[in-house]
């Protein structure tokens, strides 16, 4: 019969011990406190005789252990430890196989995706597209973009930009102290000539008058100052520039920042920026001895009266 996971068999002589020698039952002793036969005083008994004696006293043959019997002998804590160790080994080996089979880039991307689940989406505005002559907004396709910037201080040179082309500036190497002038053919949008005229040293007012008057009809004229554009500027030169529409040329002073847009034999729209000036003032100057730069920019229609 089966009890507590072990199999016990009744004491039947032949089923318990096969082929053991016979002995005298009368010579057997009693059983000790553990149910085992005590040897007789005068001799040694055989295994078969011992078995017969146990059977008389209701004893049973020692059970035959099974695998389930061994498991039942382990405590619950031991079983948990064994199971945990086995599960850990399996998990480690599974992770090792995944690490070998899956590329590192895929693992990094997966980890980043997991971390990003709880994060708020970040909305990034696209970088603004650069416009012609660094305008904030683009000019219509049927216009010319322009930007005039006076010099500022000793090292910030004047610039004249037309249709995103630098006509006069430090990079082009044709900017200098005095009044810088660029002439552009209005019909083609191509530059005709550029020149600067020193108004601090030398007598260059006459040369500047000739340069302005040599501009072809239907020309755009752009003028900017760098450093000093007034010290040797003569009255006849002021009259020529004033005749082209300037309202500030007679007010220009030593180291004034001045820019001016005009046209020859053309009528420009009234709403576009044409002229700006900033005088040197020791109390307000941005640079030591020089005022801040001034600039104008805009879009000139390609069809004018």
From TrEMBL:
Span of domain ILEI/PANDER: 177-265
Organism the protein comes from: Panthera tigris altaica (Siberian tiger)
Highest taxon, organism lineage: Eukaryota
Composition bias, Basic and acidic residues: 1-11
Record PANTHER family: UNCHARACTERIZED FAM3
Family: Belongs to the FAM3 family.
One GO CC term, this protein: extracellular region
Record keywords, A-Z: Disulfide bond, Lectin, Secreted, Signal
GO MF, any single term: carbohydrate binding
Name of the protein in question: FAM3 metabolism regulating signaling molecule B
Disordered as annotated region, ranges: 1-45
Statement: the UniProt record of this protein carries the keyword Chloroplast: no
